[in-house]
Design a protein that fits this description.
It contains three helices and seven strands; from the N terminus they run βααββββββα. By secondary structure, it is an alpha+beta fold. The chain has one domain (8-152): Alpha-D-Glucose-1,6-Bisphosphate, Chain A, domain 4. The protein has a seven-stranded antiparallel sheet, covered by helices on one side. The two termini are 29 Å apart.
Length: 159
C-alpha cells in the first residue's frame, strides 16, 4: 500500500473455516456487502458494478442521521484473483487519504481475511482528535461485526 506520512493504519484479521476462493468471490460481489455491514451507521452502496475488478469504481454513502451523510468514490487499484485487492478513495471527501487492502490467505481448512486500512483525516489536529476518540474504535467495531456475519454466512464451524 505504500508509505504515507501522518496516516493511521488499522489492521484486522478474521479467521473462518472456508476456502479462500469462496470467501474472495463473496467479497467482490456487491450484493453480498449489505449482508455483512452493521446496521449503524447506515452504509449504502450508491453506484457499483456487480463484481469488482481492477479499475472498477464504486460510490458509498455513510449516514449517521437521515439525509445527513458523507459520500465518496473509490477505485480498485490492485487486484489479484482469489488473493487480494486494494481500493483507494479517489474523491475529495471524507478523508484526505484512504486505501483499503483486502488480503485472503489459506491456512489448511481456514481462510484468513486481513483488512489493512491506511487513512488520514482532514482538519489537522481536530481530525486526529476525532480519529483517536471515535473513528478508530468505530472501524474496529465495524470489522468485528463483519467477522461475525462472515462466519455465520460462510462457515459451519467457526473459531
Amino acid at each position: 500500500m505504500g508509505e504515507h506520512p501522518d496516516c493511521t493504519l488499522i489492521e484486522y484479521t478474521t479467521t473462518i473455516r472456508a476456502r479462500k476462493e469462496d470467501v474472495f468471490q463473496f467479497h467482490i460481489r456487491f450484493e453480498n456487502i449489505k449482508k455483512i455491514i452493521p446496521p449503524y451507521p447506515v452504509i449504502r452502496i450508491l453506484d457499483a458494478p456487480e463484481i469488482l475488478q481492477k479499475d472498477e469504481t464504486f460510490s458509498v454513502g455513510l449516514f449517521f442521521l437521515p439525509l445527513i451523510g458523507l459520500f465518496w468514490e473509490s477505485r480498485v487499484v490492485e487486484y489479484e484473483e482469489n488473493s487480494r485487492f486494494v481500493d483507494k478513495q479517489i474523491s475529495i471527501a471524507p478523508f484526505k487519504f484512504w486505501t483499503h487492502e483486502h488480503i485472503f490467505e489459506q491456512d489448511r481448512e481456514f481462510c484468513e481475511i486481513t483488512d489493512r486500512v491506511l487513512y488520514k483525516h482532514h482538519f489537522g489536529i481536530f481530525g486526529k482528535i476525532f480519529d483517536y476518540l471515535f473513528f478508530r474504535h468505530s472501524m474496529r467495531l465495524f470489522f468485528y461485526y463483519r467477522s461475525i456475519r462472515l462466519k455465520k454466512i460462510l462457515s459451519h464451524n467457526t473459531i
